[in-house]
From TrEMBL:
The chain crosses the membrane at residues 12-32. Keywords: Membrane, Transmembrane, Transmembrane helix. This is Type II secretion system protein GspI C-terminal domain-containing protein.
Length: 157
């Protein structure tokens, strides 16, 4: 008796081949999804950092316009929000931009009586009315970015 071999693909080979291809596709799509999600998160962090930096630049603009009017009277440790009405203004009304909320906080600065270095408030420190500690904080759904600096009344206005 003669046996003949049939040529072609058996059902088992088709199932194994389909499983290998499906596994490869799932891996590729998962990698793509992770990279897109990571890219979006990084984009939001960059945008938040730019909003925070813009906030500090706006505060510098207000300082240059008039320290006495725009910076000196602001309450320490209070939250202020930037508004644009033909120029920058600070208000206590919450405002958001594209899902980002930018908060500006001013704090008093104290200096050591001897060294004149900035120190925390203590009996041997004097209040410096010409320097403010400024914090620009941007909050969005997935995180927070904070930038801090010192602002001085360098134009004496």
């Amino acid at each position: 008796m003669r046996y003949s071999r049939k040529q072609g693909i058996g059902l088992l080979e088709v199932v194994i081949g389909a499983a290998i291809i499906a596994t490869a596709l799932v891996g590729i799509l998962s990698s793509f999804n992770i990279s897109v999600h990571g890219g979006l998160a990084n984009t939001q962090k960059i945008q938040a950092a730019l909003y925070a930096e813009e906030g500090l630049e706006a505060v510098r603009y207000l300082r240059d316009s008039s320290w006495t009017t725009n910076i000196a009277p602001l309450a320490s440790s209070s939250a202020y929000y930037l508004d644009w009405n033909n120029g920058w203004t600070l208000s206590t009304t919450i405002s958001s931009n594209d899902g980002f909320t930018r908060v500006i906080i001013f704090d008093d600065v104290y200096r050591d009586d001897v060294s004149k270095e900035i120190v925390s408030a203590n009996p041997s420190a004097s209040f410096d009315s010409n320097t403010r500690h400024v914090t620009a904080q941007v909050v969005w759904e997935d995180g927070t970015t904070t930038i801090m600096t010192y602002l001085t009344n360098l134009l004496d206005n």
